[in-house]
Amino acid sequence: MTAPVLSVRRLVKEYGEGDAKVRALRGVDLDVERGDYVAVMGASGSGKSTLMNILGCLDVPTSGRYLIDGADVGELDEHRLAVLRNRRVGFVFQSFNLIPRMSALANVELPLAYGGIGRAERRSRALAALERVGLADRVHHEPNQLSGGQQQRVAVARALVTAPALLLADEPTGNLDTASTRDVLRVLDELSVSGRTIVLITHENDVAAHAKRVIRLVDGEIVEDRRQAPVDGPPPRPAEAAA
Amino acid sequence: MSPYEILRFAMRGLLANKLRSALTTLGILIGVAAVIMLVAVGEGSSRSIQQNIQRLGANTLTISPSFAGGGRGGMGGPQQAGPRTQARELTLADARALTDRSLAPSVRSVSPVVNGTAPAVTYAGASHTAGQLVGTYPSYFEATNKPVARGTYFFDDDVLAARKVVVIGQTVAGELFGARDPVGEQVSVAGVPFTVVGVLKEAGSTGGQDADDVVIAPLPAVQQSLTGFGPLDSIVVQASGAAATEAAQAEVTAVLNQRHGVAAGGAADYRILNQATLQETVSEATGTFTVLLAAVAAISLLVGGIGITNIMLVTVTERTREIGIRKAIGAPRGAILGQFLLEATLLSLAGGLSGVLVAYVGTRFAIAGIQPVLVPSSVALALGVSAGIGLFFGGYPANRAAKLRPIQALRHE
Ligand SMILES: Nc1ncnc2c1ncn2[C@@H]1O[C@H](COP(=O)(O)OP(=O)(O)OP(=O)(O)O)[C@@H](O)[C@H]1O
Ligand SMILES: [Mg+2]
User: Fold this and answer.
1) Which of A11, A25, A50, A96 most suits a substitution to test ligand 1, by most atoms within 8 Å of the C-beta?
2) Among candidate residues B331, B292, B134, the one with its CA nearest the CA of residue B219
3) Selected residue of B1, B329, B336 to mutate for chain A interface (largest A Cβ count, 10 A)
4) Is the beta carbon of A44 within 6 A of some atom in ligand 1?
5) Is B11 on the interface with A (CB under 8 A)?
6) Residue B80 in domain
7) What is d(CA B305, CA B77) in angstroms, rounded to the nearest whole number?
8) pLDDT value, residue B85
C-alpha cells in the first residue's frame, strides 16, 4: 500500500474576519490514491473551488494538514512550491485564466518554459497538446479571439502539457457544448487510463459518471463519498461518451 | 529558466502593450533630454560670458581716475578717507613712469587712452556715429585683444608724428563702406580727415555694447584735433603673463601712489580694474546660474520620475492577475521578478538613450543665441536617475505581487 497522492486532514478554510467571517471548509478529510479519478460535486458556494485551490497549492488552509506524496505542503519553501506547481500539478481554472495578448500556443508553452524545457521541444509538445484538445487550427489565436469553450480547451491543454501526475480541474466543461465536453472528457479519460490522478469539479451528472469516485460537498463538509469503479481499473465510460 | 528566455518574455510583455510602452519611453525621454539640455544651456551661457570677458584682453589692468570720497578741487567737506591732499588726474607722465623696467618689471606694455564720445564719422556722403573713439598707442591692440582683419595697426611712428590715421571696427566699416575695402580711404572723424589703415576683426557685442562700433587713432592725433591735451581717461597695462597680473598690480599701485602722493593705507585717486579678478567674480555668478538651471532640470527629472513611477505602478498592478497565472503554472519568483525588472530596464534604457540622443541633437543648435555645451556628468546623472526610478518602481511592486499567493494575485482587481 503506497502513500496516497493527496492526503488532507481536518482542513479548514475561513475567509474574512468577525461578522463577515465565512467558513468555506469545515474540517475536510480526504485521501486520493494514485490513479484515481475523482469528481467533486456540490451546490454553488459549498466550497468546491476553495478545496481545489488548496489542493493545487494556490492557496493555504486556515488550519489542517495537506500532504502530496507524503510531503507536507505547508513546510515547502517558495521555490519548492513553484517546482511542485510546475511539474506535479496541472490546474484548469473555472475562469480559464489565460494570459491576454499571448497566442494559444504561447500560453500552452508557458509552463514548459518555466520548467526549463528547450524551445523546439516546447513547441512540439504544445502543438501536440493543442491538437489533443482539438484546437490545431487555432494555435495562433489570442484568448480574446477564442470562444469560451475554446479558451477552456486551451486551458486544459496548458494543464496537461507538462504531463503532470496530478490534474486538477475546476469545472473544465462548465462552458462547453456537448461536442466540446465530449472532447475534453475523452482527453481526461485517456489521461486516467495512462495512470494519472485526476480531481475535477462538476455540476453535471454526465460528467461525474466518467469518474471512478464521486465526492459530494455541502457547506464545506464531505457528506457523500461514492466509488463507481476500482482505482486501478479503467474509468467507467458511459455508452454515450464512448460512441 | 535562462536569462535569454526571461529577456524574450520581457520583450513579449512590452510588445503586448505597445502604446503604454511607447508612452513610458516618451516620458523618460523627455525627462532625460530636458535635464541634459538645460544643463547644457547653462554651461553654454556661462562659457560664452567667460569668453566675452577674455575677449576684453588677457592679463590686463585698466587704470582709471577715481574721485570717490576724495577732496577734488573745491569739493571740500569732511574726509573720512585718509590724509590725501588733492586728487590728481592720470597723465601721460604717469603712463611713462609705469614703463620703467626697474620699478615695474612685471609690466609688458602701457597704453595711455583718451576717449572721445560718439564722433560722427563720414565717408563720401555716408555718415555714422561711432559708439566709441579711442586715442592710444599701438600696444593697446595687443593688450585689449583687438586683432586687425584687414590692413594694419598704426605704429609708433604714427604716434610720434601724430599722423591722422585710424583703425575702424567692423560696424563702422560696414556702415560707411558696405562690402568695399576701407583700407586707404579717407574718412572724416568729427570733421577732421583721417586715413583708414586697418579694420578690426569682428569681436561681437559684450553685454549690450557693440565692441565693433569703435574708431581707434594715435593718441596725439586725437588730442590735437578732437579732445585737446587734457588728462588721460585711462591707462591700459598689460602684465607680462597670466601669473604676473597680481605682481603688476602691486607695482603699478606703488608707482602711482608715489607719484600721486597717496600715503600707505590712504584712499587712492585712481582705480585698477583687474581682468583676472573680474573673471573670477563673473564665473562665480555664472556658476550660480548653472546651479539654478540644474535645479530646474532636477525638478523636471523629478516630475518625469513621478510619471515613470505612475506608469510602472499601474502596469504592475494591472498585471497582478497575470502574475498570479504565471505563479499558478509554476513560475519561480525569480523568473517573474526578472521579467518585470527587465521590462522596466528596457523601457528606461530605450527612453534614456533616445533622450540622450535627442539632447545631443538639440545641443547642436544655438538656443536664444547661446550655443549649449553638453556636460557629460549631466548625461550620467539623467540616465542614472531615470533608470533607477524605472527599476525601483517597476521592481518594487512586481516583487510585492510575486510574493503573493497565486490565488491572491489571481483575485486581484
Ligand atoms: N476570497 C474569498 N473571500 C471571501 N469569501 C470567499 C472567497 N472565496 C470564496 N468565498 C466564499 O466561500 C464559499 C465557498 O466558495 P467556493 O468558491 O469554494 O464555492 P464553489 O463550491 O466553488 O461554488 P461554485 O459552484 O459557484 O463555483 C462561498 O460562500 C464564497 O462566498
Ligand atoms: Mg467554484
Assistant:
1) A50
2) B134
3) B329
4) yes
5) no
6) no
7) 65
8) 52
Structural domain contains residue B32: yes
Of B260, B259, B261, B235, nearest to B248 (Cα)?
B235
Comparing CB atoms, the residue among B5, B333, B406 nearest residue A58 is B406
How many CB atoms are closer than 10 A to CB A237? 17
CA distance A155 to chain B (A): 11
What's this model's pTM, rounded to 2 decimal places? 0.69
Residue with the larger pLDDT of the pair B117 and B141: B141
- B67 in a structural domain: no
Q: CA dist B408 to A22, A28, A80, A200, B405, Å?
A: 17, 22, 19, 22, 5
Q: Are residues B325 and B215 part of one domain? A: no
Same domain, B350 and B384: yes
* Domain that residue B118 falls in: 89-259
In this structure, the answer to whether residues B246 and B125 fall within a common structural domain is yes
B276 within a domain of the structure (yes/no): no
Chain A residues whose CB is inside 8 A of the B1 CB are: 113-114, 116
Instruction: Quickly state the pLDDT bin for A243 (edges 50, 70, 90).
Output: very low
Question: Which ranges constitute the DSSP H helices of chain A?
Answer: 48-55, 78-87, 104-114, 119-132, 148-160, 178-193, 205-208, 239-242
Interface ipTM:
0.92
Residues B118 and B231 in one domain: yes
pLDDT confidence of residue B349: 85
* Averaged pLDDT for residues A38-66: 94
Examine the pLDDT at A227 and tell me if it is beyond 90: yes
Which atom, in ligand 1's list, is nearest to the CA of A53? Answer: 18
Q: Answer yes or no: do B198 and B251 share one domain.
A: yes
Q: Which of B403, B263, B222 is nearest to B323 (CA)?
A: B403
Q: How many angstroms away from the CA of B25 is the closest CA of chain A?
A: 21
Strands B192-200 and B148-151: antiparallel
pLDDT digits (tens, 9 = 90+) for B338-362: 888 888 888 888 888 999 999 999 8
Residue A212, pLDDT > 70, answer: yes
For residues B160-175, give the mean pLDDT: 88
Same domain assignment for residues B252 and B299: no
Asked whether residue B213 falls in the same domain as residue B102, the answer is yes
Rounded Cα–Cα distance for residues B269 and B263 (Å): 11
Nearest Cα residue to atom 6 of ligand 1: A15
Q: Is the CB of A15 under 6 A from ligand 1?
A: yes
Query: Does the pLDDT of residue A142 top 60, yes or no?
Result: yes
Q: Please, is B279 exposed, middle or buried when counting C-beta atoms within 10 Å of its C-beta (0-12, 13-18, 19+)?
A: middle
Domain count across chain B: 2
- Domains present along chain A, CATH in parentheses: 6-227 (3.40.50.300)
B299 and B245 together in one domain: no
Question: Mean of the pLDDT values across residues B377-392?
Answer: 84
Residue B282 confidence (pLDDT) above 80: no
The ligand that comes nearest to the alpha carbon of residue A51 is 1
| Per-residue pLDDT at B55 | 66
| Residue B356: Cβ-neighbour burial (10 angstroms; 0-12, 13-18, 19+) | buried
Query: B192 alpha carbon to ligand 1 midpoint, in Å?
Result: 108
Contact A98 B325 (CB under 8 A): yes
